[in-house]
Amino acid sequence: MRNGYGDRPGLITYINLGSDWAERWVNVGSKFAGYTIHEYTGNLGGWVDRYVQYDGWVKLTAPPHDPANGYYGYSVWSYAGLG
């Protein structure tokens, strides 16, 4: 997780070096708590938003590392609606 600074919001990167899809509950702390975050790479196959619980927990997903089939093993998340 990168906190950001000033008007830069920060982000969460979930890396998966495995050959299967990965999904995990992670605690991203208070920075994103209570907000909806968006996956900005498109690596999950479309528009994906997740709500971060007020205690900072959110379930994130990352595709497998399988470039031959168009999967690159990571997802990048930040506040929804940034651009």
From TrEMBL:
One Gene Ontology MF term: hydrolase activity, hydrolyzing O-glycosyl compounds
Species, as recorded: Thermococcus guaymasensis DSM 11113
Domain Alpha-amylase C-terminal prokaryotic, residue spans: 11-78
Name of protein: Alpha-amylase C-terminal prokaryotic domain-containing protein
Highest rank taxon of the organism: Archaea
